[in-house]
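input
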Amino acid sequence: VQLQASGGGLVQAGGSLRLSCSASISADNLKINAMGWYRQAPGKQREMVAHVVTGGHTYYADFVKGRFTISRDNAKNSAYLQMNSLNPEDSGVYYCAASPWGVGGSLQRFNYWGQGTQVTVSS
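output
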């Protein structure tokens, strides 16, 4: 599985960005049942932002609830992250992730990762 993330950039505080992630699957019998976004700021650990499972159930970190929306196009094996009301603390590298297991909730884990896209929010 190869994941390609895009959509990052520089935006002013209060602005919006939309990240996209597309999964390319080489194995015929592999199905992606969960896709998500993580982020990592300089000097900080990577943290979960949001994820969505095949049935449409979503899960968000508390610090993005009400501001970010994750969505998924199952047919295209793609996921999107609409980020509104951005603030400088949202800056970092955003990584797309995928998994064949759609556990959902706080137990969801991922084993495929994209290369990341940089998000910078200026004050």
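quick obs: The mean pLDDT is 95.
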